[in-house]
Amino acid sequence: VITEAETLPLPLVPMDLSMPRPRYRARPAALAVGLVVTVIMLLRLFAGGVVGLGDEGDGHPVTCSIGVAEPGGPGHVHPVWPSHHWYGETCGTAGHPHPSTELWLLWPVKILTSAVSGGGLDLRLLGVLCSLLVGLLCAGLVLALGGPVRVRAFVAVGVGMVFADCAFADYFVSPYAEPAALLGTAAILVSLIVIWRRGHTTVPSLAWICGLLLFTIGAKAQTAGYLVPTVVGILAVPYRGILPPPERHGRVGWCGRRWPALVALALTGTMAAVYVGGQLGRADDESMRAMAYAELLPHDHIPAAHLRTLGLDTPASTAIPYDPATGLPNPAYEGLHSRISWYRIALFYGVHPLRAGSLLGRGVAAAADVRADHLGSYPPGSGRRAYAEENRIPLYTWVFAIFRWAHWLMAAEWIMLALAGLLVIKHEFLPRWSRVYGHLALWLAAAAPIHLALEALTAGSREPTRHMACAAFLTAVGLPVLATCVFLLFLSLRTLTRRGSHARRAGAV
Amino acid sequence: MRGASPAVLAAAVLLTGCAAPHRFAGTVPSILMRPGACHRLAELAELDATSDVAPPVPCSSPHRSETFALVRLPAILSLTARRPDFAGRLAGDVCAAPTNRYLRSYLGADDLDRHWGVDVWLKLPTRSEWRRGLRLGRCDLVLGLAGHSSAPELTHPLHGALRRADSADIRHCRGRVEHVTCDRPHIAEEVGGWTGIVGGTYPGMAAATRQLDEQCWRNAERYTGGAVDRLPVRPTANPLSVAQWRKGVRSTSCWLINKDGHRTRGTLRAGLTKDVSL
Q1: Which among B5, B18, B127 has CB closest to A89?
Q2: Do B69 and B120 form a contact (C-beta atoms < 8 A)?
């Protein structure tokens, strides 16, 4: 028997999910979370001897710019790099200078090293600096996120533990550009959360987000993939600040309420395109050939036909830059340089979805590997063998062991993130602050696969696991966010059920 | 956050300068490099780089390469608008002529000396020099890797090195099977000079061996400054079989083999000077 109460529409008011009331204020909690995460980072990097990541030459293009040289090989991490004077084309990628925002972290560290020990580069100081920045970002997350402090702290500590995990923390004592890319990624998230929570953008907030985007792209060009979800995330909220737009309706009104964001995004997109174009142009020789020959040839069942589609009609003769017999230049190879382009490669994968799927599948497998096991974690003289890996905090590494077992679970996580994010945003009864978590989940669900696809397309055939560090990082950050979204949906479901029960009892009475 | 934004953005603009790579001053154009110049090339990236415009260093200081010839590049390379980025592969062809003509005299070798473990590397002009039309190749001498991850360092010039006492690191020796430089443990050292058979017919294995050993002994006597009988070594020529003879082989190599088979380091070459005379 259906009672009258059950047929009545539920009241359209947001639920109070903050029950029981939060006992902690946000600022002390932020301070506590920041401190705890910083201490955890410092302890895991330095207690019991410093750990980091060895370099097999990829750190050279960036670190040579500040006049240092690696003292050893990739089997061990070398915390102190001595000064070295690089001349001419010996510094950079194949002789080309390699601008990177990682230098924003390395320059202060070099100045500090000079002050402390007289010269060179002490990567341990980079570890200390990054630990502080990670703590700041986690504290910022607590302040920026909405809802009960316990929920904010859970997400912030969850993100902090991603940084502290042995899959990512080692980068902070390494010469690679990943520290800037990972910190930039987290900073973009904090800035976006601020505008999502406020429900509008301002000129400073737009400047922050665009600046951080450029910083992150400057460290790792493939993070240009973040532009797609960020554009959607910024345009999801209107502009409100100095010079507010006139009130209009329709599409003109929609654009009018977002014109500063549209201008800022257009500028950011242009600058990013110029930088990424320059980076890809420098990497042409190596990366495009790697794409065509190291990626397509071994994994394709009709490589000759597909190479012809790319404009490479004689795979055997065009693959080698020199004549193996004489060592003289191979004219076919020189011709290949003018025929192949990133546009053609992208177009090829666009019209060959099976090849693109296969490429992405290998990208997901590389991201699931999460740890670059061809690089050592311990310094020489630590008593550890070369290439030994540390396992101080392997929390997310354990989760990724499941992803390694079944790669599709990683894609499943992205899909669940997207679904949970949509449900949280569209759920009419959830309080306004909870939508921030929905936006966050959606951003991560979009950014991770787009970035992974760009990495797989441009750099995935060489050292794929290390190149997928940001994609793995986004996937790992998605786990506490997904847990929070599911928790919010569960609470809303429970509250709805209780209301239904109350309504039924009231009807019975 | 709003209050801090202008300061942070200003700092970011200032820091942008840091993101641009630093260019190091003090380079020396490729055209100014001269034979006999030594090059530090301490890092693998410098050794592998297509060009090198670092200022030369004194040959008495640690270095890894020494220029022994400058060559005009062949037309197939000169006409290329883009500079090739694989100079290492070109060294054998581009530096062949100076290697065949000058290398032994550059090293100070006479007919009794056999050099070993010296590689010829090629450096090309920088991209900007190439655009300005410079087509000069620099042929450098670099010690072979010999199991090291990078080329061994030198602290003396290779010019006239075979006339000096510290030449063991470029002389040819061997262990039981492996070929090494004489500064490494070995059981035999090669002696140069002619060790072969003249005449129109093969004299038979026993006669050939006797003839070769006699020539080897004479060469060894000159090599050791007349001390071969007093040294714990046995001059031995590699055999020359009838099959080799039929293929046109008329000479073989001569070795000073340690009598008790123990391993030694260094060279038995006599008449070397200890004066590096830099």
Answers
A1: B127
A2: no
CB contact under 8 A, A334 and B80: yes
* Whole-prediction pTM: 0.84
- Answer whether B188's CB lies under 8 Å from B195's CB: no
For chain A positions 23-62, those within 8 Å of chain B (CB to CB) are: 57, 60
Chain A residues lying within 8 Å of B23, measured CB to CB: 97
pLDDT at residue A292 above 90? no
Top-confidence residue, A196 or A259: A196
Calculate ∠ Cα A258-A263-A264, nearest 5°.
100
Residue type, A17: L
Contact B55 A89 (CB under 8 A): no
DSSP E strands in chain B: the ranges are 38-39, 65-72, 118-123, 136-143, 172-174, 179-181, 188-191, 233-237, 254-258
Residues 6+ apart with CB under 8 A from B16: none
* Single-letter amino acid, residue B251: S
- pLDDT grade, residue A3 (50/70/90)? very low
Q: Does B129 touch chain A (CB under 8 A)?
A: no
pLDDT at A299 > cutoff 80: no
- C-alpha pair distances (Å), B41 with each of A190, A341, A412, B33, B36: 46, 35, 51, 15, 15
What's the DSSP call for residue A357?
H
Closest by Cα among B194, B1, B132 to A206: B1
Q: How far is CA A432 from CA A10, A17, A257, in A?
A: 18, 11, 21
Residues 6+ apart with CB under 8 A from B194: B111, B215, B219, B251
Q: Which residues pair with B180 in a beta bridge?
A: B173
pLDDT for A402 equals 94
Measured on CA atoms in the order A280, A283, A285, A288, is the torsion positive or negative? Answer: negative
Q: For residue range A193-229, list pLDDT tens digits in order.
A: 999 999 899 989 999 999 999 999 999 999 999 999 9
What's the rounded Cα separation, in Å, for the pair B76 and A466? 40
Q: At which residue do the structure tokens 């951080």 appear?
A: A212
Structure tokens at B270: 């006599």
* β-pairing verdict for B136-143 and A80-81: unpaired
Partner-chain contact A202 B85, CB within 8 Å: no
Q: What is the mean pLDDT of chain A?
A: 85
HEC assignment per residue over A274-298: HHHHHHHHHCHHHHHHHHHHHHHHH
Q: Is the peptide bond before A229 cis (omega within 30 degrees of 0)?
A: no
- Cβ contact, residue pair A90, B42, below 8 Å: no
A256: tokens are: 């009018």
Do residue B21 and residue A86 have CB atoms under 8 angstroms apart?
Answer: no
Can you name the residues that pair with A83 across neighbouring β-strands? A68
Is A67's Cβ below 8 Å from some Cβ in B? Answer: yes
* Interface contact A259, partner B, CB < 8 A: no
For A59-70, write each residue's pLDDT tens digit: 888 899 889 998
Does residue B76 sit at the A interface (CB-CB below 8 Å)? yes
Given CB atoms, is A285 within the 8 Å cutoff of chain B? yes
Instruction: Kindly state the DSSP code that residue A246 receives in the 8-state scheme.
Output: P
Q: How many CA atoms lie within 13 A of A198 on its CB side?
A: 21
